[in-house]
């Protein structure tokens, strides 16, 4: 039995499910060779870049993940040279993870590849259509974050 798609929220749920699949398995990304960041590294590095150095506790609070999961993810990032552990700049006891130049470069390369892929997909869209989608996605994510109590800091637009 198929569920009716008679409400916009039904369509949004279905389309966001497909979007998640496309972002993880998309053809343009799979053609790229080695050196790709995995999804967890990409997300963690993005957060650390915007927020600054973070401890396991801060990452756990920000992502709603347990410390053991984050210990595995950050250990892999340490081995790959994407982050380094530093003393807390604010004098706290916990050591923090800071993005390295290799992490910055990897994140920049991954983000550029993602943007190129989106630009290929939306090549026939008007700039207004792209801006509307961007604004709607930001609002959707912000509302989810507000309900969850975990707002995501956003980079400031460049002047």
From TrEMBL:
Limits of the HTH marR-type domain: 1-142
Pfam family, one: MarR
This protein's name: Regulatory protein MarR
SUPFAM superfamilies to which the protein is assigned, alphabetical: Winged helix' DNA-binding domain
PANTHER family: CONSERVED PROTEIN, HTH-TYPE TRANSCRIPTIONAL REGULATOR RV0880
A single GO molecular function term of this UniProt record: DNA-binding transcription factor activity
Domain of life of the organism encoding this protein: Bacteria
Species: Streptomyces pratensis (strain ATCC 33331 / IAF-45CD)
